[in-house]
Design brief:
The complex is a heterotrimer of chains A (97), B (725) and C (185). Chain A is built from 3 helices and no strands. By secondary structure, chain A is mainly α. In chain A, helix 1 packs antiparallel against helix 2 and helix 2 packs antiparallel against helix 3. Chain B is mainly α and 725 residues long. Among the domains of chain B are: 151 residues, no CATH class; 254 residues, no CATH class; 41 residues. Helices cover 69% and strands 3% of the residues of chain B. The two termini of chain B are 53 Å apart. Classes of the chains: A mainly alpha (97), B mainly alpha (725), C mainly alpha (185). At the B-C interface, helix 29 of B face helix 5 of C.
């Protein structure tokens, strides 16, 4: 079942990537990133059958980081929305050096 | 470690041996703290408040006028002086008492194996396993007793000598630290611990030579000692690497066991020994690395006595005896040690003949005597080398302290008269025996000892070395070895003759020192003479004790021919478990015992040479006709060459220092550093970064979408690198 | 209690949930309304939770439902509601046909590369631990204990650091989310 799990993981990951590349709504892009993280988690769990419990432990860490990321990221989006009244990526270009 | 648990010394007072170095370390911390708390400035006295108040005339005040105590300005006396005066020597006395008790405990038990205590694992790296461990055996016991005993006496002397110095606490802090490292050196159970002590005493030597560092000459003398020693230390390091690479251990016991398996006289063991000896020439001031020791006299005189005569400079001798299992395996290295020692002994003795600075004479004398020790350990007479080390510690410490006493008095007299003459120059002294009778007597004892007049200590030890050279020339593994194409027999006989010649010169220059300093009319002014009187008991007390030791030190190891004087060969028996095997290797397994008639002849020759030397000096030198330094004519001819120490410093300057300096300045600095590195690399990379940054700034659009694409494309590139590997 | 023992039954469900996950993920990226998208993402996450159960990671499955589908996605929905973005907005959310094609092409390349990498054997598929290691762990320590033991033993430092990370994230979110106008006045 390892090959199937990894394949599913790869497909989900690529769907996430394509979503990031094609969407312009910041919140949806964010959700795509969450999908990519989920795909990676699947890899960890699938491989933990072969390599020991470390994989499952790491899934927990990934979840924690995802939670932290969601909290901060969404706060940033709210903050941007307050300033520009939009979450359209084309209008978010403040990262210019 | 099984060794320590089963050893008969386990559970006795010897288990406290870690306290030996820890006590001085404690003293270092306390005195160091007092030094920082006690004075607003850590350094030597501020010129504004120190000596310079009588510098109304801008006479060229040399280093001596700046340095040697004799200053009684109330504001310069630091706080906590009394506390430092108790703690500084106190820790040494405690350490000595502990050492003495351990010594007594050692006498009763079977000490065929060393008593090793492991405290913690220091460097466990792969196969390399270095423990913080101390090893107590007969050899380290002898060294510990000398270091703590002579050290304690010199500490007590220093209380008087340095009493008016603003850096009083700092001085004792450094001195305590030195003793700590010296004890590490002799107690360490493996080469790295020894090396820590080896480097540590070098550091303290540097700190104490440059103790009065506001004077530029003192600071550079310290630097010179430090740098010259580094050259030798590289040798020790390389030797350690080679030992570990070939034997897999650095513990003395392990190396001793492994050394027996090495091919006898092979290239490997010879190379290791020669690299070790390179370190010894640096630390123990032998040719060609001796040049730092005369300059080291810039430090306070007790420092010269403790570090640059009695203990630190003998570390090289200790290292060779400690590694005797290696040196005994290599006749070529052993003969090299003996030859370098002999040549140094004669070379330094000739220079000492024409020095006027009382401390310089003693410095060259120390180099010469160290040469004798290396002759001893070189020919495989390890006990004789340690014997001379011990007696030399007594009489040379005494000579230095006595000289310090004289300088102290001279300086005090100059201070009263306001003179700025050289307080260390013998031409300015003369007739001091009237002012300082005790110093005069003990100095004569030391002089007779170093000259080799029986029954003083130096006679026995020097005779034991020269006798061993003669015996080993006749029948030992060295006899049959070839050294630079010459047979070992010839070389050792030459060493013996050089040794005798050196002994002759030793008697002459030491008598010269005594005559010019204590005899004849005083060359000081009447006003100055009125202020000359014996140093306080704190200073004369240690002198008297050392005088007694110089007188009786020979009884440590009486030769068998003199059994009527008492028990013979004390040190031989004591050190037999440590160096016995190595000595037997050198002597083909038989205990060499020259016939009594030969031995009597050798002793007779030594005595005749010594007496002849003193007689020549007394007859040829006229203290009465000597004039003070200021009116002395310049030397000429060979005398000038000797007075200028064969121009070795100048030769080193021209041959090594200047070319290196020129190369550094023109090629490495102007060419490499300023040209290539600064312009091409530093400025070039800055320009490159600026250019790339300019391009990068164009790419940064600030649009998040573009960034997302860039990340994905980058990921694809990285994955392709993995996929199409 | 795993696919190896139950065979076809498990295999069928594994494929079933896998297909649902892919379909719902595709639906998720193509929805214009953020609320709809979030709902489809939650479906994907539930499917993944089911897959975890079949991969002998029951505790992770529970966490997946509680943390991802529960906590994180609720925050997303909460923010969408807060910013009043619930309906398909007038912003052209999906890029033009060229962008879509290019993105699809890139996705295909990625899948191809992952396939190549899998074949060249970076995950070898060989058991480093015993074949029934996971079942043994579950039987001995239970679903929670099997994960908790390594987490609190081998990874205790990482665990503590993660807690610090969460604390920092909370502080950061509070500061970023505060209305600046009130403090600026």
């Amino acid at each position: 079942m390892l090959a199937e799990s990894l394949g599913l993981s790869a497909i989900l990951f690529v769907i996430g990537v394509v979503g990031v590349l094609t969407r312009r709504n910041a919140i949806i892009i964010f959700m795509c990133v969450e999908l990519m993280l989920n795909a990676v988690n699947l890899t960890f769990v699938a491989l933990s059958r072969y390599y020991g419990m470390g994989g499952q432990v790491f899934v927990l860490f990934v979840m924690t980081v995802a939670a932290a990321e969601a909290a901060v990221g969404l706060a940033i989006i709210i903050s941007i929305f307050r300033h520009r009244q939009t979450v359209d990526l084309r209008n978010i270009n403040v990262m210019k050096g | 470690m099984a060794l320590s648990s089963s050893h008969p010394l386990a559970g006795t007072i010897a288990a406290w041996m870690w306290l030996l170095p820890v006590l001085p370390l404690l003293g270092f911390f306390i005195n160091g703290a007092l030094s920082i708390l006690g004075s607003s400035h850590v350094g030597p006295s501020d010129p504004d408040m120190g000596h310079d108040d009588h510098d109304a005339s801008p006479a060229a005040s040399d280093q001596a006028s700046h340095s040697h105590g004799g200053d009684s300005h109330a504001q310069a006396v630091p706080r906590f002086r009394a506390l430092t005066a108790i703690i500084g020597p106190g820790v040494l006395i405690l350490s000595f008492l502990l050492a003495a008790s351990i010594f007594l405990a050692m006498r009763g038990v079977d000490m065929s194996a060393p008593f090793i205590q492991r405290y913690w694992s220091w460097m466990p790296v792969g196969d390399l396993r270095i423990d913080m461990a101390f090893q107590l055996d007969q050899l380290s016991m002898v060294m510990v007793l000398i270091i703590t005993g002579v050290g304690a006496l010199i500490h007590i002397f220093s209380v008087g000598y340095m009493s008016d110095d603003p850096g009083f606490a700092r001085f004792f802090a450094y001195l305590n630290l030195f003793v700590f490292f010296m004890l590490m050196l002799v107690l360490g159970a493996n080469y790295p611990i020894l090396f820590v002590g080896w480097e540590g005493v070098g550091l303290c030597s540097y700190l104490l030579i440059g103790f009065w560092f506001t004077d530029n000459a003192n600071a550079s003398a310290g630097l010179k000692a430090f740098i010259v020693n580094r050259i030798g230390d590289v040798g020790v390091l390389i030797a350690m690497f080679m030992i570990f690479a070939n034997l897999g251990t650095l513990d003395f016991t392990g190396v001793a066991a492994g050394a027996a398996g090495l091919p006898f006289g092979g290239a490997l063991v010879t190379t290791i020994c020669l690299f070790l000896f390179l370190g010894c020439t640096g630390k123990s001031a032998q040719l060609p690395l001796y040049v730092w020791l005369p300059d080291a006299m810039a430090g306070p005189t007790p420092v010269s006595a403790l570090i640059h005569a009695a203990t630190m400079v003998t570390a090289g001798v200790y290292l060779i005896v400690r590694s005797s299992f290696l040196f005994a395996m290599s006749p070529i290295a052993s003969i090299t040690v003996a030859v370098v020692g002999a040549v140094t002994a004669l070379f330094a003795a000739t220079i000492a003949m024409k020095q006027w600075d009382i401390k310089k004479v003693l410095a060259y004398s120390t180099i010469s005597q160290l040469g004798y020790m290396f002759v001893g350990v070189g020919v495989g007479a390890y006990t004789a080398g340690i014997f001379h080390l011990a007696t030399h510690a007594f009489f040379k410490a005494l000579l230095f302290l006595g000289a310090g006493s004289v300088i102290h008095v001279m300086h005090a007299a100059y201070h009263h008269s306001g003179s700025h003459d050289d307080a260390q120059d013998m031409r300015n002294m003369g007739g001091m025996r009237k002012a300082m009778p005790i110093t005069w007597i003990v100095m004569w004892i030391a002089t007779l000892a170093i000259s080799g007049i029986p029954p003083f200590a130096g006679f026995f030890s020097k005779d034991s070395i020269l006798g061993s050279v003669y015996e080993h020339a006749g029948d030992s593994v060295l006899t049959n070895a070839t050294w630079l194409g010459m047979s070992g027999h010839t070389v050792l006989l030459a060493v013996y003759v050089i040794g005798l010649a050196g002994a002759f010169l030793t008697a002459i220059y030491m008598t010269r020192l005594m005559l010019y300093t204590f005899h004849g009319p005083s060359r000081a002014t009447a006003d100055e003479q009125r202020h000359m009187h014996e140093a306080p008991w704190l200073m004369t007390g240690p002198l008297v004790v050392l005088g007694a030791l110089s007188l009786a030190g020979g009884w440590l190891n009486l030769p068998s021919i003199m059994s009527f004087l008492g028990p013979v060969g004390g040190l031989d028996h004591w050190l037999e478990p440590v160096v016995g095997a190595a000595t037997r290797t050198v002597t083909n397994g038989v205990a060499l015992e020259a016939s009594h008639s030969t031995e009597a002849a050798l002793i007779g020759a030594a005595i005749v040479i010594a007496v002849l030397g003193i007689a020549v000096a007394v007859l040829a030198l006229k203290p009465a006709s000597l004039v003070p330094k200021a009116q002395s004519p310049a030397e000429h001819g060979f005398e000038k060459v000797l007075a200028n120490k064969y121009y070795v410093d100048e030769a080193y300057d021209d041959a090594i220092v200047r070319p290196v300096y020129g190369l550094s300045k023109n090629v490495f600095w102007r060419g490499l550093d300023a040209g290539i590195i600064d312009n091409l690399f530093v400025n070039g990379s800055a320009a490159l970064a600026r250019g790339l940054g300019w391009i990068g700034a164009r790419i940064q659009t600030g649009s998040t979408g573009v960034y997302a694409w860039a990340i994905v494309v980058g990921a694809i590139v990285v994955l392709s690198a993995f996929s199409f590997r | 209690m795993s696919m190896d023992n139950f065979g076809l039954f498990y295999q069928f469900h594994f494929y079933l949930f896998g297909i649902i996950a892919i379909v719902s993920a595709v639906t998720f990226v193509t929805r214009r309304s953020p609320v709809a998208a979030a709902m489809w993402l939650i479906v994907t996450m539930f499917c993944l939770a089911a897959e975890y159960v079949m991969l002998d990671a029951q505790f992770i499955a529970a966490m997946q439902v509680l943390l991802y589908a529960g906590a994180i996605m609720v925050i997303f929905l909460f923010v969408i509601m807060l910013l009043n973005l619930g309906e398909a907005s007038d912003i052209t959310d999906v890029r033009g046909i060229g962008g879509k094609l290019l993105a699809g092409f890139v996705g295909l390349i990625l899948i191809a590369e992952v396939g190549v990498l899998t074949r060249t054997g970076i995950p070898s598929g060989k058991y480093v631990v015993a074949r029934d290691f996971l079942s043994q762990q579950l039987a001995t320590y239970g679903a929670v204990g099997a994960v908790a033991r390594p987490l609190y033993r081998d990874y205790s430092l990482a665990f503590e650091l993660t807690s610090v990370l969460l604390l920092v994230a909370i502080a950061g979110a509070v500061i970023l989310g505060r209305k600046e106008s009130s403090s600026a006045r």
